[in-house]
Amino acid sequence: MNTKVIAPSLLAADFANMQRDVEMVNQSDADWFHLDIMDGVFVPNISFGMPVVHAIAKHAKKTLDVHLMIIDPDRYIKTFAELGAHNLTVHYEACNHLHRTLQAIKAEGMKAGVALNPHTSINLLEDTIQDMDLVCVMSVNPGFGGQSFIENTYQKVNDLRNLIEKKNSKALIEIDGGVNASNAKKLIGAGADILVAGSFVFKSENPTNTIKNLKELIAQ
Length: 220
Ligand code: DX5
Ligand code: ZN
What we know:
Structural class: alpha/beta
Function: Catalyzes the reversible epimerization of D-ribulose 5-phosphate to D-xylulose 5-phosphate.
CATH class: Alpha Beta
Oligomer: single chain
Strand content: 15-25%
Number of domains: 1
Binding site for substrate: 9, 67, 143-146, 176-178, 198-199
Pathway: Carbohydrate degradation
Protein name: Ribulose-phosphate 3-epimerase
Catalytic activity: D-ribulose 5-phosphate = D-xylulose 5-phosphate
Number of helices: 8
CATH superfamily: Aldolase class I
Bound molecules: D-xylitol-5-phosphate, zinc ion
């Protein structure tokens, strides 16, 4: 992929005005919608579930990038495919049989992603990187929006880019957590393809302009 992707996270949207915020993203320069599903077990927070994803999918006109922060995600692969997810990302730490999970996601016609918590080494992907369409590097501990970006992420992205090249994988690198105008360009420089941005977009005065500025910042 040549074009770098901005994926606003609806976790930071105004849930009482979800349709308005979905339309804003539709009309904006953003490329994807990022949807955060939390179960209160894998992460200490509960976000939203299937009925909300269904409602969002009815209005969303761009790629639905679904990030599952749940234990035992295999249980819901089919459900999210039916809901219209294009990308389904599971956590490395939540899968006992990651290879099998990735195949199951692809068998449902979705792109398969793996997210890594800040403490999880990219070296653990050595044997599966070729089976992934996307690696989501968590640049905060998952569970909440609005946290500060962890600086070690740049090094991790660099190392991951090298691993992807070494293994001849086609996986894209996504960064999730604390992304803003101060770190976006450096992240792309380190090898990222996709930047998720929640608070920085939705808590800004003009989210449409914020997305436009981010896109311009990372244009190559
Ligand atoms: C965190 C979620 C993120 C979150 C990012 O657990 O996975 O997608 O919405 O929010 P910000 O951009 O506010 O850090
Ligand atoms: Zn996320």
